[in-house]
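[09:14] KT: can someone run the structure on this one? pasting the chain below
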Amino acid sequence: MKTRDVSTQSTRQSFFVRVILLTIGSVALLIAMFGLVIPGLLTTPFVLVAAACYIRSSERLYRWLVANHVFGSIISTWQEKRGLTLRTKLITLVLVWCMLGGTAIFLVESTLIRSILIGLAVIKTIVLMKLRTV
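[09:31] RB: done, structure tokens below
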């Protein structure tokens, strides 16, 4: 009878862990989607977190993510070469500086907000430069 309780507890725990991983992965993917249109948000780390969660919780979602035309290339490049392509880095940097820099220069009057926006652009640039280019 104790064996039965242990297996039931193990099944419940693995279901609970699976639900948590699916939730974390889905939230990370949602943030990555926002990161595509909001230059201050990082996209790649959130896609990688989603992939790591999905591979441990849902083979179907992991396969969908890897096959996705937007996020799949990020995952495959990272898995194969542990870095980002020069094209990905350049597109990201151009978007970051156009959006954040342009907003800071042309749309914001507050010096504090301008400084924050430029600071975010600088941080994003530093993070991208530290990642390996493949």
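[09:33] KT: thanks! DSSP finds six helices and no strands in the chain.
[09:34] RB: yep, looked fine to me
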